[in-house]
Amino acid sequence: MIREHFRGPLKPSLIIHGGAWNIPDESVEDCRAGIQRALEAGWKILSTGGAAIDAVTSAIVILEDDPTFDAGFGSHLNTDGRVQLDAILMDGNTLKAGAVAAVEHIHNPIRLARAVLEHSEHMMLVAGGAEKFAKERGIELCPPEDLIHERERIAWRRCLSDLHAAEHHLGHESGTVGAVALDEHGHLFAGTSTGGTCCKLPGRVGDSPLIGCGCYADAEAGGVSCTGHGEGIMKIVMAKMATDLLHDQRVLLPHRKKAGALSLAQAVADACVRKLAHRAHTTGGLILLDRQGRPAAAFNTPRMAYGYVEESGKFRIAP
What we know:
- It is a single chain.
- This protein is α+β, with helices and mostly antiparallel strands.
- The protein is about 30% helix and about 25% strand.
- It contains 8 helices and 12 strands.
- The strands form 2 sheets. Strands 4-3-2-6-5-1-11-12 form an 8-stranded mixed sheet. A 4-stranded antiparallel sheet has the order 7-8-9-10.
- β11 (about 305-310) and β12 form a beta hairpin.
- The longest helix is centred in the first third of the chain and has 19 residues, at about 30-45.
- It is globular and about 55 Å long.
């Protein structure tokens, strides 16, 4: 096990996001309020000696239940007018993940992803098979209508008659929520949850629940959760790229002649977003913690909703 050279408890750390997209001015306060509530839930666990897996799960559940974000209730509808949800949770110490995709009867897919992580030999279950597993684990199924916000139903109807116009949707280009936490025992977890893109084809699965794409955690490097254009993030396997680069000090070379110190974590986050733009020609963002719990975030969209806990214990929230 890593971190054996440390004596006593570690300083816990938490960072979360609510999606990188063109957040309009009128939605900023709702985003900030949601991030605040999620940070409070996760930090209450970590600051009292709780486990990173509980902090990540609790923070993401808050965001899934908040219709401001494209995850859980209030997610975008597919072309059939249904919500299909994806989520993943990954353990940085064991490298095991639990993921679910295209589920239609689950209020909080991150809870089902956790059940897969903890109680299944598999790492991903989809659609009906995932929901059968949920029933076996005592996770209640809900009617599909319970996941639909009237705002999204109206937007879907407008898209049907107006060639899928972006302006109909809150967060049309992307959504997704995620969290990364390090607890005082050195356990590192990362998670991501999403409703996917609006008017996606039924059965479409993006980057979010795919290990190494929308999420990755390795206790020897760090943990990552991504957001943005899923197909582009998949092309460069962005979350795994980030954790690999956390081992490579050469990432700092372009910054050494610039004023101000830049952490390796921030240099890595910036490098990954540049690669997303350069090779996949698209937009997105990511949050990460390195293995010491140092936070970083980067994005190439107009705004990204995210927040983290500073060393002082104060919450830093954007936008």
